[in-house]
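the three lines:
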Amino acid sequence: MSGRALDNGLRLLGLVMIGVIVCFLVTPIFVTAVMAFDARPYLGPLPPPALSLRWFAKFFSDDYFLRGLGTSVELAVLSVTVSVCVGVATAIAVERASFRGKEALISFFLSPLIVPPVVTGFALLLFLSKMGVINGFARLLCGHIIITAPYTIRATLAGLSGIDVSLTEAALSLGATERHAFWDVTFPLARTGIVSGAIFAFAVSMDDVAVSIMLTDANTYTLPVALISSMRANFDLSIAAASVMLMLLTLALIVVLDKFVGLNRAIGQGVFRS
Amino acid sequence: MTDAAQPSPETVIAFRDVSKRFGQTVAVDRVSFSVGAGETVSLLGPSGCGKTTTLRLISGFEDPDEGVIEIAGESMVGKRPYERNVGLLFQHYALFPHMTVAENIAYGLKHRRWPKAEIGERVDEMLRLVQLQGFGDRRPGQMSGGQQQRVALARVLATRPKLVLLDEPLSALDAKLREELRVELKQILAAVGSTTIVVTHDQDEAMSLADRIIVMNRGRIEQQGTPDEIYARPLTPFVAAFIGRANWFHGRIAAAAGEGLCQLATDAGTMLAIPHPGGAGGGSWSACIRPERVVVMALGAAGGAGENRLPGQIVDVVNMGAELHYIVDGAEGRLMAVEPNRAGPRVRRGDRVQLLFRADDCVVLPRKPD
Amino acid sequence: MKPDRGSLPLLLPAGGVFLGLFFLPMAGLFIESFRLYQPGSIGSAANAPFTLTNYAELLTPAFADFFLETMRISLLASLAGLLFAFPLAYWITRRFSPRGRAIAVGFFVTLMFLSVLVRTYALELTFGATGPLRPFLQALGIALNGRPYIETLVGGGLLHYIVPMATLTLLGTIQNVDPRLVDAAQALGAPGWKAHLTITVPLCMRGLLAAFLFAFTFSISAFVIPMILGKGRVLFISNLVYNRFSEIADYPSGAAISMVLFFVALAIVYVTSRQVNKRWTS
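prediction for all of em together
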């Protein structure tokens, strides 16, 4: 009977572990969300005696954060646009390649994902300085493009490879040229991949710290960089308010992703490995 | 087939010594055939025989390494699939999931630049032809397999292609649906007067749909002919074994036996009466007899027509409902006899019986080296 | 490797972007790591001689300590992540309804999408030395400023990303294992835990290795998590690179450390994927 006792013991242990890890994952988020509404002007122990929006007001009245937010959004929109265009063109070309060539091309275009972001940022900084690019925004844009491009390429490839080849052939046999077949059949069906890629890329760009911190200058900085400096200087709850808003942004992105693509499919496209 | 006095029908497609290689494998090996207007021809063979490659050569998705392909007299060299008016019905239909049924059917018309006014009419005409009136606004995902097949057919026929290619048209359907749609398919194709090539590995499909069958094996054509010719007079051991069931005997010609017959001395020692294959005596031959032509009788019973009587023992009796299969073991190995099921099995497992068959019913072919 | 005629122009934009924003910069970084640095200047001089001192410096025990600490914490966090994620993924796959599974997937994807800053701040706020839980943690006898606690917190920060990611990866892997195999093992006499150990786990090996690979490369490259949660006392290699850059402007040294980190990450990916493909390709 020791088999059964051990079984039950281990099952209990498994459930305890699950409980612990889920608590661990959720508690900090929950605590932050609650503390963001703390009415006290200082950081005190839980629970907050009263709720208020003071920290949100503080965040929105702080020019430093607002400039960072503006820059982040601009960078995200621009880099995602460039990445999506590059990603779609590249994914089409790779999809058509021969089998061996395809593997090599995919490794090539997904390689930035392996490199630690700090290294990417550092390398780019040195190179852009040598090339004479000193404008902070331009440098940040370059950084954001190279970190978002692999995501759009990967997701679009996953979307394209899911399309049955016989659909394109049917279009060709009915009289459509290759170009027409692409726009009539391939592109509409690959749309989910493209949308996934764009959303992943947007999230990556808004969230990036390591690359941005290397490329930033005194005048141009992103919101995450601003938040990090603030965290090291003065650990107060206005950052909690910023966190709550970033959480809401994440939720919004997830909802959009689910509506347009479906989460299960999006994950498949996110971890696509040829 | 065609009356000798009539002029030969216009040739819609001609293959002349066409070959196609993929790396080291020869998928299609010097294949020649032609199909006349209004004919339905089937390319029949096991997987890997080259029929799918032939299909892709006709539709333009592959180019031949050697040989000439002509459609309606025009050479197809360098012509892309959209430059040939060849309709292709895919095995899994390949309906565009993001377009409605009407848009699917209209797709070919749009790209062949039919005037807008006529497209709508033609789509309606096609829907009526396949009995899907009113389904124009549905999407393929909302329809059953049989309905999808009809939409795919309508899409293919809409542009009045010179040649229609069907790739395993009935394989994706279950047995009952297959029977129904086979009849419908034949009627529709006849009504439209189309010239059709059916590619399949299923001999039932080939025999029931086609006027003429081309049996392929390993890239080559083994035999071309009507279903009856292929079945009753196979020219190679492959065709004989592939079509229908067969009992085989292998041996050497021992002596002539008058009236065009001769004696085959089998490897196991039995003497069989078979039609004389012609030429000098001797040589190794194989004879096959269809199970439907073998009669099972009680051992020792006299009577019954047939020069050949082989003793044996019933190993299994299979009641297929409409047919009875008797599996018999004897000196020549395991043989099968089939008869229509009129009143249930006449013998049981273990019974000693004799197998009767006539010499004329045997098909004699040169023996293949093992 | 030839793409067909129409594809070449399509590859040009990506080719240009990757060349200009990735390969050339990385090559430049590689070269920079061999240049001599004059203390007091910014980066290396224009025609500085080539040298190996930047790499030689890394062979000292001080750097080795940083390196090993990064590896140690990363390894522990990755293993812990898998250890927690596996039962979690198993429970969700086998015991949840399809709708429940969809919600669980949504939950984990949201966690993964959540900004790393939010997570790190949340952890520091909740479990840190100046957070609202301070009295509670101190009552448990934990030295909130002690090194072991800080290391654990950094590991926890890594876990916060690793567990959702590994769980999502393993959901697919476990779904592909036929539950009847475990039933068969039990019918043959193996107790539940043994059946899982000898059947489920080996069949999930490919997914487990893939998840570990992801987790480990993510951990050793981590920047924000050790920066905030490490409080300057626990430094990962990425932080070292940043310090060389921002505090001392010793670019060549920073470049050398970067190259080491890069090649280590590359080696891990290469070795592990070869292993995965070699042993588990059917």
